[in-house]
Write a sequence for this structure.
């Protein structure tokens, strides 16, 4: 509510952090025996995609960002594993009570679509959502670059 | 729920104006005409003295609440405002009466929060004249709140003030000093600031000025990025069964052997190369100690290297656990 806000922090780690995380998850995948059979391409695709997102979430700041927490939690739920996160200072549930304060129906339609796209967007206020979107965009573009480089590097000559 | 009789009922009727017919409304108004200094619809009220006298006679020495008519104005009622606003009570201008009438008319078109009205009504059932008019003033103020938005804080505060005193806060004309509206304005500024930030991020958005168009662009961009990730993962999936995929194992092996501190330095130049559009160089030079692809070692050795405990020392154990537990 104060006019003096902290500057928006959307620093994203360098490309090598993303690369390392992604490569590690890929090699973990490789270690699975069923991974390399040529028939099940769809499974592989899904697994790689999931690996990409999870490694991105991890590289981008792990549990310090709302969207990465949501992403990791979602991935863990798919595996029916419960991943414990360290408690943050501000509880996300507090924001839910203030949902009534978010008005302006025109803006809310768009914000709704954005919330569906960005992981963890459901519990955020609109301003927080924007911050998370900015960081998410940066991380996504970084991840895309990493994957592009990998694909290019591995492409048949 | 109309369980009250007497003039309190009229007040109730009066306030649920949105459902009432014109006739009922006029009847309610007529019943209150005899009350001094009450009725503002006929802008006959001298905004200054009568209200003061009225309140003074009621034993209260509080300034009035006149809310703004504009869409985002709100009224805050808080005990802390008494001392501030009592100094402003003398600044009451006649113009405030006009706002009051306007607000009054606005309120007629709105739904009220019946619950609070009833609570007030029941409490004031015993003291009819002064109290009911005061409650009507209060309810009018509450109507202004309804006009804008319901927030739990304001309702709670009014309930408190209802039990203790009637706290009226004067708002300046053309500006809302309400804490809620100030918060609302601050929030809007925050959002616009972030929109500008996002505009810098998303390429090709300089021309778009509206918030809606901007949000559309952002959504499209996020969707396109996600689609790109999917597409690239498909490509990787087709590529991965090949032997060349062992590159990552070799890379990991080299990473393990090299201390972490060297990594940023070694990988830094490739970024500049990538920026100038040479992805192949990045792949090659990023893997610093790495042989070119044609000289890839056979699969068994690097895999073995990577699988033993070396990797655990390299990475955080929880990172390892996380990736293995998530199955990626």
């Amino acid at each position: 509510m104060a006019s003096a806000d902290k500057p928006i922090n959307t620093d994203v780690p360098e490309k090598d952090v993303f690369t390392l995380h992604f490569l590690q998850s890929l090699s973990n995948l490789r270690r699975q025996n069923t991974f390399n059979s040529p028939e099940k391409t769809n499974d592989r695709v899904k697994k790689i995609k999931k690996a990409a997102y999870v490694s991105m979430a991890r590289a981008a700041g792990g549990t310090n960002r709302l969207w990465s927490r949501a992403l990791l939690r979602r991935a863990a739920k798919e595996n029916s594993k419960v991943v414990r996160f360290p408690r943050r200072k501000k509880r996300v549930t507090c924001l839910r009570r203030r949902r009534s304060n978010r008005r302006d129906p025109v803006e809310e339609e768009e914000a709704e679509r954005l919330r569906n796209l960005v992981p963890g967007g459901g519990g955020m206020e609109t301003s927080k959502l924007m911050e998370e979107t900015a960081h998410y965009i940066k991380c996504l573009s970084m991840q895309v670059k990493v994957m592009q480089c990998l694909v290019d590097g591995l492409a048949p000559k | 729920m109309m369980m009250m009789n007497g003039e309190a009922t009229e007040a109730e009727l009066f306030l649920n104006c949105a459902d009432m017919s014109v006739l009922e409304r006029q009847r309610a108004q007529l019943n209150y005409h005899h009350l001094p200094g009450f009725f503002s619809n006929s802008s006959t009220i001298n905004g200054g003295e009568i209200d003061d006298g009225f309140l003074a006679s009621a034993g209260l020495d509080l300034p009035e609440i006149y809310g703004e008519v504009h869409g985002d104005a709100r009224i805050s009622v808080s005990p802390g405002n008494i001392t501030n606003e009592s100094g402003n009570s003398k600044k009451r201008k006649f113009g405030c009466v006009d706002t009051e009438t306007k607000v009054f008319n606005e309120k007629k078109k709105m739904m009220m929060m019946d619950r609070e009205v009833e609570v007030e009504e029941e409490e004031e059932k015993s003291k009819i004249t002064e109290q009911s008019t005061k409650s009507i003033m209060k309810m009018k103020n509450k109507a202004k709140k309804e006009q804008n938005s319901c927030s739990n804080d304001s309702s709670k505060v009014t309930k408190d003030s209802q039990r203790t005193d009637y706290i009226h806060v004067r708002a300046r004309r053309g500006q809302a000093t309400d804490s809620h509206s100030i918060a609302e304005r601050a929030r809007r500024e925050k959002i616009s600031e972030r929109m500008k930030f996002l505009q810098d991020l998303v390429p090709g958005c300089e021309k778009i000025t509206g918030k809606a168009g901007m949000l559309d662009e952002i959504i499209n961009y996020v969707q396109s990025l996600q689609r790109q990730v999917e597409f690239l993962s498909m490509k990787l999936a087709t590529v991965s069964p090949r032997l060349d995929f062992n590159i990552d194992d070799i890379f990991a092996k080299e990473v393990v052997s090299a201390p972490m501190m060297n990594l940023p330095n070694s990988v830094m130049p490739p970024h500049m190369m990538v920026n100038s559009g040479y992805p192949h160089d990045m792949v090659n030079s990023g893997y610093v100690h790495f042989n070119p692809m044609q000289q890839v070692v056979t699969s068994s050795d690097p895999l073995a290297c990577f699988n033993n405990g070396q990797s655990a020392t390299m990475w955080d154990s929880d990172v390892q656990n996380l990736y293995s537990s998530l199955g990626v």
In short: DSSP finds 16 helices and no strands in chain B. Chain B touches chain A through 76 residues (CB under 8 Å). The first helix of chain B runs from residue 7 to 15.
